[in-house]
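[job 4471] stage=fold_predict status=RUNNING
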Amino acid sequence: MASSSQRQTPDTPATADAPALSQLLPSASEQLNAVEEVRRLFEQIFASEDGQRKSIDEPIFVSFDVAHGNKKGFSAIGVSLLDTRSFVGKLKNREHTHSPLWTRTYIFHYGSQGVRLAQKRALFDGDAQKVTPTDRMSLLRHLFSYYNEEVEPCCQSQKFLPFQASAREPPLSSKAAADSNARPIVVVGHSIPQDIHSLRKVGFDITQVAPVVAFMDTQTISRELYWKEDRSKNISLKDLCTLIGFQPIKLHNSGNDAAYTLVVLLSLASKILGNDTYENLEKLIQSALLSAKTTTQKRKEAGQDEHTFEDWAENLNSENF
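[job 4471] inference complete, writing structure tokens
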């Protein structure tokens, strides 16, 4: 997520440092306006609830945020992941063994003290991890490429694992995106043109490693939803969270920002679809927000030292689809 002075609107002319959205995202994502794209995507996800599901109906949401400010490249990247299999499908109401969102911050250019601070500030059952700059490309492939391999036993959703430099890497080629075992993804960000541009500058193209169903920019969606007459309107992630109805904490931690951005997208989708249309979506949002606490906060609330989290599947109601 770039600073507000760097963010570009879809209509802003491209510059060397901040390209326009149309230069970064596939044209297919621009055939519908942002609000209708959200409606189409979520209706497609939920429409197959009672029918035969296809891989494209079960995308993984990959929300990401890049921390800039280092001349050698971005200093950190945060991701928050959500597999739609965990809340849509016949296994969605089983007792889950994982938290709603899988969230991590990966740090390139800070020392151990910076990593410990990021770990201390991590919300959403998240964590922070140091990665050497030489492993950056391997990490990026790890964050955006998913295959039908290891799954969660509770709901058959993707089992997300921390990055390991020695882990097997998916191939970096156009064949990777066309691999029948590759899971489709929805790329999510808040003012993402600058973040995507940062990935491109280091030689990484998301569309080369995964089949991308859609790019979702919460800045653009909120602008079309709330400020139709002001297409140049920019709103910070903090102010957008407040507008939607919740107060974010510990922002400017890349993992936290990515998670809040994903919650914002789910909230905007709920509003676009109609708050009463898919009640499970709203309950998923509330369950995710319940995990927006640090490990220390959770231990104090639980009155114990052992890390625990509430089983969020109990909040889902199968009769609401």
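[job 4471] summary: Residues 42-320 form a domain with the Nucleotidyltransferase; domain 5 fold (CATH 3.30.420).
[job 4471] exit 0
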